[in-house]
């Protein structure tokens, strides 16, 4: 169950990254957080050069920590999670890592790839 504060945080992250034309749609549909993050990801990543993105399935902790929003501890947690559970199949799987919530995910998504 999504709490009221989590919904507000998801809405704020989605509205920040989504184009103006999608903001009212995202605001109306908080029930599907994953699709909102996916839409925000597509809008945000269109401005980031694909060659400059970091692959979360092959990156080292040092490489991951160069991204604003990912510190050393979170970078190490990403690598440990990947080693324990295998490659990420979806970028939203990063929310399974302690310290990465919807706001952090929205901030770092434009810089990551699979």
From TrEMBL:
Residues 1-27 form the signal peptide. Keywords: Signal. SUPFAM superfamilies: RuvA domain 2-like (SSF47781). Residues 62-81, 92-111 form the Helix-hairpin-helix DNA-binding motif class domain. InterPro entries: Competence_ComEA_HhH, Endo/Exo/Phosphatase_dom_1, Hlx-hairpin-Hlx_DNA-bd_motif, RuvA_2-like. Pfam families: HHH_3. It comes from the Bacteria. This is Helix-hairpin-helix domain-containing protein. It comes from Psychromonas aquatilis.
């Amino acid at each position: 169950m999504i709490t009221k504060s989590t919904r507000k945080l998801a809405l704020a992250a989605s509205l920040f990254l989504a184009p103006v034309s999608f903001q009212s749609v995202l605001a109306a549909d908080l029930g599907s957080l994953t699709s909102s993050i996916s839409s925000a990801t597509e809008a945000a990543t269109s401005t980031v050069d694909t060659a400059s993105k970091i692959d979360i399935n092959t990156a080292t902790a040092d490489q991951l920590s160069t991204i604003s929003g990912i510190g050393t501890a979170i970078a190490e947690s990403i690598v440990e999670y990947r080693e324990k559970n295998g490659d990420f199949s979806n970028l939203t799987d990063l929310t399974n890592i302690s310290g990465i919530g919807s706001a952090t995910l929205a901030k770092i998504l434009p810089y990551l790839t699979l």
